[in-house]
Each structure stands twice: as C-alpha cells, then as structure tokens.
Amino acid sequence: MLPKEDLLKGIENREEIVRVIDLAEQALRTWEVVCTDFVSPPVLIEIQRSFSRLTELKILPWGGYPQAERQRVGIARSDLPLEIDQIPLAAIAVEGNFLFDPANHRDFLGAILNTGVVREKVGDILTLGERGAQIIVVPEMVEFFQVSLQQVRSVPVKVQPITLDELKIRPPQKKEINTVEASLRLDAIASAGFGLSRSKMSDAITGGDVRVNWKDITQASYNIKSGDLITFRGKGRLEVGEIAVTKKERYRVQLTRYL
What's the pTM value of the predicted model, to 2 decimals? Predict the structure, then answer.
C-alpha cells in the first residue's frame, strides 16, 4: 500500500489525487500499466510532485501531441516499460459549416458536456474556424460522440473518427520580451508581458482570470520568480525567464509570451 496521507500533504485537488493513488495501487498489484482519464494542468503538477517521491512507480503524461494541455497519465511499476503508445487516446473531427455561426472552444466544450459526458473523458479541443474542430478523447467515447454529438451552437455537425496523425497542430507562436520593473509584483510583470495597463491587469487578476503555475492567484501583489508560468484567460501564456537586478536596484526580466 502506498503512503496515501503523506502523498496528499499540501494537495489542493485532493479528490482527483486520491483517484490517481488508487490507480497506482492497482498498477502495483496487477503488474499492468494503468491510465488516468484526462487531467488538467494543476492536477498534473500535483501528480508529478506527489509521485516524484516514489521509487516503486513511474508515471508518463501524454495528451496526443507535445504541447497538449490536458493529458492522461500512464502509471506502471518502475521495472516495467512505459511508453506513450501504452496510453490510449483517440481523436474525432466535428465537421459542420460554421461560416455564418462561428463556434469557439467554449461552444464545442459546452456541446460535448450537454451530451452528458464528464470533462475527464475529453482532452484538448483544437478549433478549425469555419470547418469545425478536432477533439482528443478516450477511445471508448468515439462511437458515443458519433451518435450523440449532433449540433454545436445552431450548426448541425457530423462526427468522424480520425487518427492522431491527422490532428492539425498549430506550432506555438512566441514573442520575446525584455522589461525593467520596480518590483516583481504579478500585476507589473503580467502587464508588461501581455501589453495591458497596470490597472486593467490588476482588475483581471482580482477577477480570477490569471493563474501562476496553473494556480488561481487573485492578489496583484503576488511576487513572481524565474521559471513561473503566467496564464491569462483568452490571452495566452507568459513564461518568466532570467531575472537580474540593475544598478538602480530595479528588476530586468526576460519574458516569453506564447500567443
């Protein structure tokens, strides 16, 4: 048995991590590779942090492509092989004419959840403009979606299975930014990185639109450090690089913005 209470110390997503621990114990008992459903980035970070202490197990996250946000986690005994092809994934194309009624990520997700499927069965949603979307799912849900997912917004859709090789992955666009700030406050760094005024960024932070390392941060005065990842809903991600102190005791910060 695994030391469950030790693994749960400091964990915020307790219910999700308990389920993963149960799967890990199954992997130890059966000598088989087991997989979680899709987990969000905050949960994945906590899984990696908790399981890094265990020598008898290894984990491998995979969401269908290298930059996938939502991923399944394979779990196996340390002395067994564990490769990404052992993590079951499937993909579907949701096709319709969205020229006159465009649908965004939230629209496709809403249509999926309206079929009664829980979020954990669905990975990343890749929107394709007027052509629809491609969605990564657990394999056992493909036939269900072919029957049950019939409309997104006002648009009738047809669902077809596709291979992961057919996914239209857009390479991440990024922009390098250098800024000098009087402090390392979140509102100052995020304002420089996302090109918004300090007051608007402060409002976004207190409004719950900004995360640091996938954790909700609602204090504009929160101090940023090198290596942090700042996400701003609808605006992309900001990676904090090297931080240096200038002669005038200000902070020179290297930022990478992913659009």
Answer: 0.82
